[in-house]
Amino acid sequence: MDAAEATAVVTSIFIYPIKSCRGISVSVAPLSSTGFRWDREWLVVNSKGRAYTQRVEPKLALVEVELPIQAFAEGWEPTKTSYLVIRAPGMDVLKVSLSKPCEVTDGVSVWEWTGSVLDEGDEASKWFSNYLGKPSRLVRFNEVSETRAVDPNYACGYKIMFSDQYPFLLLSQGSLDALNKILKEPISVNRFRPNILVDGCEPFSEDLWKEIKINKFTFHGVKLCSRCKVPTINQENAVAGSEPTETLMKFRSDKVLRPTKKQQGKVYFGQNLVCKDSLTEEKRKIIEVGDPVYVLHEISSCVDAAA
Q: Kind of pairing, strands 292-298 and 217-226?
């Protein structure tokens, strides 16, 4: 296959180390068994161990996260001087060691999952507690002892860390542009928190992609992404509004896209993916900005898509 046959090209890759905090735009991203390496590996929880997200704590949108540049090189391992660097308005810089913490905490939950995690300690806890104004702790997924499975009704045998449900979310620039043409005030792609942004295809064509190849890796489209409240939160100031959900309801709801299916009042924007090759032991598993996207199999309409 040559690039001339490609349907689209990868234009941005985003990784969100701390769930619900700001993402990092990278040019190269290593694939792991749970999605991109570092993606949603950390989580902020309340005093009962329940996950905080922007749905209830929109201020998390203003928390910036930085990893060492070399952290995205394939096979890189942290040293004692490798840190996750965290910043937020009005706060001192917090540095969290990338060496695995030894404190294990049980009973942490995110959506359907409950398990043990690695606790990042009192300094991080104090920082997030001060920032959010309520007791908080920063925890890390404990891959040694825990597994969190993707919903087997949609994709059997895959796993994630603290992502909502799936390892990858893909969105096309065409879809975002089509939405922004209708909105009174255009919005940035960061409202939708995709992992992979592609360009060159028709708006919403990603809805129909069942099997695609990026670089040499096979991804399966497993579910249209139903959107929660987070896209209504301005990621620059953490203020929530009614858009873009109000506009999306008019042309991206299940009522419009899937009139013959059970209605749940959902709106869809983007496609959830799993990567078949993430389950193999193959070395050099990376995708890069500029990689062509080949569509190997697609369905005819959204009515036939899983949602």
A: unpaired
